[in-house]
Amino acid sequence: MSEDVDLVVADLADSAFRVAGLLRANFHATAAELGLPPAQAMALANLSAPAPMRELADWLKCDASNVTGIVDGLERRGLVKRRPDPEDRRVKHLVLTEEGERKRALLRKGSHAHAVTLFDLPEKDLLRLRDLLKRVADAGVGIDVASGCK
Amino acid sequence: MSEDVDLVVADLADSAFRVAGLLRANFHATAAELGLPPAQAMALANLSAPAPMRELADWLKCDASNVTGIVDGLERRGLVKRRPDPEDRRVKHLVLTEEGERKRALLRKGSHAHAVTLFDLPEKDLLRLRDLLKRVADAGVGIDVASGCK
DNA sequence: TATTGTTATACTCTATAACTATA
DNA sequence: TATAGTTATAGAGTATAACAATA
Lengths: 150, 150
Known about the structure:
2 copies of one chain form a homodimer.
Chain A: H1 5-33, H2 38-46, E1 51-52, H3 53-60, H4 64-76, E2 80-84, E3 92-96, H5 98-118, H6 123-140
Antiparallel strand pairs in A: 1-3, 2-3
The structure holds a DNA duplex (23 and 23 nucleotides).
């Protein structure tokens, strides 16, 4: 007899939430140590290269109007600068300052160290877990939210 | 040659975040359809039986002072009632109304339907993923946040 | 003294809508 | 007309500190 799929899925969703919660809690704690609110930290972590503000809104999956405030905070802290695009004068590119680069590196270092400790599995299991979870994550982008239909 | 563990872990953390993000986005959307803000929905989902407000604060991992506002919202919507504990008159138990039970069921039904669609894997993989993720989640509770040390 | 729940306060996050300046 | 970014506004989530009632 096979296990009840509903139960397995419920278990799975619970574990996924818990694991992500642990990752997020650590990210927030690391951010707090660096004096950064969560959203600003998330923005900073995503700024691998100069990018228009619009792009940041897409990354953070939030309305463009929020980005203004988040970037205001990062600019107030001296971590990014707004640089107007000479080609299209509506666009402003976000450029990290030296201090911004430094904090970004610390932020990523902290997250990664925690992840390594968290995903403490034998290599075979680690690879298996990565493959399975990636399949779910990749397939999931095509699923309509709150409808359950593809 | 084995793959670089750092890369695998980074990939894994990314997938875990994405999967949890999908689950959460769906939960919020389902909550919104029921006219519930996220925190109130989360509280409602956790109220399987009458519980003291303090317990809810632990579940939600937030300060007790927040719970007052969240429960105010649920009470305003007629979904829960505060019932004083006769044994310890400091304590108030949260009891779902009939409408509260109804919305709670709908909320859980929506989440679960989405999870079933999301975790659309052959049974063998499904069980494997559940086991691996559960191991990580269970082990993770013992890890200090933002320090990476056990 | 310690704990439960409340209030007051402040900061942050988020979406909507109306606006500007460009394209 | 459409797009990038801003402003104003309002609702929501969160933590801190001080407090009342009770244990």
